Write the structure tokens for this entry.
Amino acid sequence: MKREQYHYFVEGEDDRKVVNTLKTDLQWIKPGKVQVFNVIEEELTSLITRTLKPGTIVVLVFDTDTGKKNTLLKNIRFLQKDSNVKQVLCIMQVKNLEDEFLRSCAISQIKELTGSKSNSDYKRDLLRQSNLADKLKKHQFQFEKFWNSSDKVYESICNDSAQIKIKNNLFLKKNVEIGKDKGNEQRIHELYIHCKMQ
């Protein structure tokens, strides 16, 4: 069976570092190429998408702190019409990558994750990390809480993180099997249908 092709568009180098760690070192998300491109601020063109292989699943990773979505929606529609793109998945970072870590790690300030002297040094120190996976484990990183929030401004866009989370997919499957008698399977199905109808 041919392996699916994934292509991640992320906002910055810190996001690329994290996605590469999740897919390579931890193997918790689907493998694929990671490219820095801010889909909230910049419009995609055919010059960028023509390098995609036919049947590619495009994953858009973006922050929600700006509250902007017009360019994002244009990019989603553009990708949906592209002949090389099989599917477009959206991953929200609410409000940004730092907030995602604050929700999913046992830290009260972002500087604790990287051992930085101040919160303003965090991004620089993150990029210098050679063992980010170990840092995440040290601070009790709960993957099920990462990329798992929603933002009212972007309520028309479904957060598709479950479709790329390898570990989370297994977790959901187990919960469905355990909770069949309690109606959990029906609830998960309803949530899935709701997102697809947005």
